[in-house]
């Protein structure tokens, strides 16, 4: 794991990101004190369409009653 100071991180951010995307971790320090860690992100989990299947009743699309609309107004 590599440690760089804030100035070096700002100056060489593109190169640091290339190393991180290749799997490296980089610690960013201010005056020798670690304050942040750059690390690669895990790929997002695959989404499965239709996981929460359900049925929408035709009444779902009916206009709301006036009292319901008024309840949502500020």
Could you walk me through the main structural features you see in this protein, from its secondary elements to its overall organization?
The chain has 74 residues and is an alpha+beta fold. The chain has a domain at 1-41: YefM-like fold (3-Layer(aba) Sandwich). The chain has helices at 6-11, 13-21, 66-72; strands at 2-5, 26-30, 33-38. A three-stranded mixed β-sheet has the order 1-2-3. The longest helix has 9 residues, at 13-21.
Q: Would you report the number of β strands?
A: 3
Uncertain residue segments:
none
Quaternary assembly:
single chain
In the CATH scheme, the class of the domain at 1-41 would be Alpha Beta
Main beta sheet: 3 strands, mixed
- Mean pLDDT reading: 92
The CATH H-level homologous superfamily of the domain at 1-41: YefM-like domain
- What separation lies between the terminal Cα atoms? 54 Å
Question: Looking across the biggest beta sheet, what order are the strands in?
Answer: 1-2-3
Question: Structural class from helices and strands?
Answer: alpha+beta
Summarize the structure.
By secondary structure, this protein is an alpha+beta fold.
Record the SSE blueprint.
Elements: E1 2-5, H1 6-11, H2 13-21, E2 26-30, E3 33-38, H3 66-72
Parallel strand pairs: 1-2
Antiparallel strand pairs: 2-3
């Amino acid at each position: 794991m590599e440690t760089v100071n804030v100035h070096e991180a700002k100056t060489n951010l593109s190169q640091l990101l290339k190393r991180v995307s290749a799997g490296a971790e980089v610690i960013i320090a201010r005056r020798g004190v670690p304050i942040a860690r750059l690390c690669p992100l895990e790929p997002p989990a695959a989404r499965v369409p239709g996981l929460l299947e359900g049925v929408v009743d035709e009444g779902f699309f009916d206009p709301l009653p006036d009292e319901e609309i008024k309840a949502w107004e500020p």
